[in-house]
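Possible regression after last week's pipeline update?

I re-ran a chain I had predicted before the update to compare outputs. Posting the input and the new output here so someone can diff against the archived version. Not blocking, just want to make sure nothing changed silently.
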Amino acid sequence: MLRIIFRKKSLKLTALTTALVLAVTPIAAAAQENRGPPVLRDAETEQLLREYTRPILRAAGLEKQNIQMVIINQGVFNAFVADGRRIFVNYGAILQSETPNQIIGVMAHETGHLAGGHLAKMREQMAQAQTQMIIAMLLGAGAMVAGSQAGGASSGLTNAGAAMFSAQGEVIRRNLLSYVRQQEENADKAGVKFLTATGQSAKGMYETFKRFTDESLFAARGTDPYVQSHPMPSQRVAALEELARSSPYWDKKDDPALQLRHDMVRAKISAFMERQDTVYRRYPMSNNSLPSRYAHAIATYRHGDLRSALAQIDALIQQQPNNPYFHEVRGQALLEGGKPQEAIAPLRKAVALSNNSPLIEMMLGQALVATGNNAYTDEAIAILRAAVARESEAPIGYTQLAIAYGRKGDYAQADLASAQAAYLRGDSKTARDLASRAKTRFAIGTPGWVKADDIVSAKPLPGQKSN
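New output (post-update):
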């Protein structure tokens, strides 16, 4: 299931270096779109990323911190940390990483930021910079006021005040950027350390940064290294290469089975996120590999040929009958093709084979609800409640719960579920309105009433709709 959702605004999706840039250029920050960026959810991709990061987090001492992987709907190569408990990765980074080791290296680098506490330290640096900036503003303003009071003869004092502010601001900016460059270097070192500790090569990490160095070589020509937020590419990659080559695992290759899973996820992302002609350029019909056939099957159903797609998916299932994601995509194709009743069986199989993946459970619940058959209502509610209990930030689970409860006539729970879905989408006004109505339907003090009251009392975060 590859779907786009919107997360509530408590997910401040700002890269470490972007946070710095916006902090020193408030106009740019004000111009940012208020609505949070869309997030892609897919059980297969998320499971693979969790397996990639688990040993890295263990080596970093963060295994018990419940670090989450969040896939951003952006085709460019990027990954970042923002709040100390999530690693954000663009789908473009996965699609462009040819080997597991390349994306694992990027994840190791980002884990280096988390392990180093760079976000908290950056906030301290920003606070210090803000204090320095205020002092600079006061000194500069004082000089300009003195110059203006002295008249034209002291216009030089006015100009000096402006220059003082400008010069001080530039010094502060350079100090902050220097601090960020040091953090990036430290994250590189930590990433290589974690990879070595887990018996993995740092070659993929080096290859990724080397590729970016080659691409940015012309752009970086003549650039002042003291106004860059990252170390100058050639210097950074040279240091990284020396460090990575010192690992005894430099030449270690990815396990073929892991490489196949990586290729399958890349094929899936391409089929869902790219134009059909682009998909077939990546995976021509002459390519009969499993990833290529996976991409063809998904692209076929997405562009309206359900019968042909099902035949292709069935061929995949015949080759790997215990692959839960083949059964999932069959169910999704049928559900989105207007055949929810037929989607139930493959989705049940996918849930069982995936060890009850909550995202797949939500799709099964959606199929049960979509049949319009009241005989499925109680089962749909049970499945969806179990899913949202383990995956609480997917609005679709609550939306389907609301429909199921409404069909059953339980309007208190229907309003509460709708409120929770609206809150997760970032629509605080609708969430409060629905939660207020839900409160009137629940007995005071009951669990439903308390949950509704929490939503009513929640303050809208910046960028949320509040009126």
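Follow-up from reviewer: compared with the archived run. The longest strand covers residues 68-72. Marking as no regression found.
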